[in-house]
Amino acid sequence: MNNNDIETTQKKKSFIAVWLLCIIAIFALVAFSLYYAYKDSNHNTTYDNTLDFDMPYTEKPQEPIIYFETYPTDNINTHDKKIDTQPPNNTTSHLSTKQQTKLPQHNKNKRFKKPKVVIIIDDLANPKDIKRFQSLHLKLTLSLFPKQFFSKHNPAIAKTLDFYMIHLPLEAHHFEQKGVIVLRTGDSLQTIESHIAQIKHDFPQLHYINNHTGSRYTESIEDMQRLLHVLDKHGITFVDSRTTAKSAMKAIASKRKKPYLARNVFLDNEANIPAISKQLDLALKIADKRGYVIAIGHPKEPTYQTLKQYKQRLLHDYEVVYINELDALLQQYNLKDTDTPLPF
Description:
Layout: H1 3-43, H2 47-50, H3 97-101, E1 116-124, H4 127-134, E2 141-144, H5 154-158, E3 164-170, H6 189-202, E4 208-213, H7 215-218, H8 221-233, E5 237-240, H9 249-253, E6 261-262, E7 265-266, H10 273-290, E8 292-297, H11 301-317, E9 319-320, H12 323-332
Parallel strand pairs: 1-2, 1-8, 1-9, 2-3, 3-4, 4-5, 5-6, 7-8
Helix pairs in contact: 6-8
């Protein structure tokens, strides 16, 4: 074999080796892509598909959830003010490793009690979502949809939970999900009684309810009075999600003996980690000032990730409690609403 033949053979071998490496690389890329696609499909459940289940939606836009409370100051009336939820410029991380390890030292006063933080996770109908948020091992107040076709497993799941509440669909101004059973303005006392009695039958340990949507319903004094009358009969306390700045609940609650329980901050109207982090920081500032706060989030992947990374800070500097524990504390100090600071 002459030199030319040897050189040609070596070139062929090199060519074949390069092609084999290319083919191996392509197979590896495909395998990794399939793996991460499978992983995302199992873990990236968001509020947008919580009620999917082949349910047809109307063309109406989603009911707006209104922020109308900022971190209060002494000289500014913040009621009905919309919070700017845009993350600050150049925000790349919601909680750096340095921030997690260097936790703020709270209150050297021995009398100080850690601020109480209630975090409600709404819209729960998917067992995967419930287990995922349980895995954080924080005392999150899980708000389950009543038993409907898309949430048929919720009564059984509720029996396994230390504490839960029900996320009650109420009529909205500009949003409706077809197939979802909703209490509507003008419903009779008998209709409300039948609906709530069925929910109590499905969830016998139920003592707290908050509203899913409900901007139209919660603005109606007459309808809310009828609903509260039935809830009182069944030993259920209403927690106002404040999906409208015109909620009638505060006016009604002023004449009742119970505290007016209402959401202070929505965490995840914007489903990205910097925005959720900003809202959670806002909630914690309110807790620092008042001694407690009620925040609402949803089963979104960025919400889960944010809570996961804030977990050590929450456990170190705050006390995450269920809504019934905060209710008992407010009653102990005779506070009428969730805007009044604790006396210590």
